[in-house]
Amino acid sequence: MKKAIILSLLLFVFIVRAKAQSTISQQEFGDLIAVLNKEDWEKVDPVLKDYLDRIPKQNVNDGQAAILRYMYITAQSGLMYSKKLSKDEALKKVKKFEGLTILRPWNTLSSKQRLNMLSPHNNTIDTLFITQTNKAGTDLYSFEYIALAEKLDKDHFDKMTGSLCRVLGTINSITVEGNMFPRFKMKISDAKLEFKEAPMK
Question: How many domains does the chain have?
Answer without folding.
Answer: 1
